[in-house]
Amino acid sequence: MKTLHVSALAATLMLALAACGASPSTGTADAAPAAGTAPAEVAASAAAPAETAPVTVAQVTSGPQVGDKIGETAADRAAAREAKAAEREAQTKKKDAELAAKGVKRIGWEDLMPEGEEERLAQMYQAQMSMLYSGAGVSEGSAADSAVQIGTFNTVKALNGTRIRIPGYTVPFEYGADAQIKEFLLVPYFGACIHSPPPPPNQTVFVMADTPIKMKDLAQAVWIEGTIYTQTQQSELADAAYTIKLESIEAYEY
To answer: Which of 3, 17, 144, 229 has the fewest CB atoms within 10 Å, i.e. the most exposed one?
Structure first.
């Protein structure tokens, strides 16, 4: 078998490339091999893959990093909170308008305290603490070893006979799966009268219902609607300076 001359082989390759529509470039790494290059070296050069450019540090650090949080930015969260607050305010105004149309006024627990009552209550609590920490101590089982209801029966007379709506927690006088409740206490915080001392009398409301109701969940805050009276009620759990004749009760949605 005859050996082709190198220059003849190069010319043959050039003609083959031209026939396939490829034009050889000049002055680049893809130019035709110089004369004297062995056929095996030409084939190896043609089969070698293009060299990959190195990955820079900027390219590596441009993606997610350890500790990055997925989701909203701080600005997004702040905007969502503002939107939620605006939505709640709009719902409250709408509800207040509906209540006003029915002649019902929405009130808070602070509205049950007459002027200057908070200062009087603070002085009473301070006197109670001074007695407890005077060094005498309290004997277990004694009369002093009990939850004392501190406060007054002072009320806001203008509320007498007003139809109101107020939130709170229920404290029934009887328990049980089938207990039908017609009377219970309404208090401003969970656990009052049971796991902690009772609130002041003017922060405790005695509620009376014409139709018995079921207390499904004492931990669920409720809205109470009804007519409030400055009428004192006494019970084993706590004394109340106000009485409400119940019209409706519904869950308090946070």
So the answer is: 3
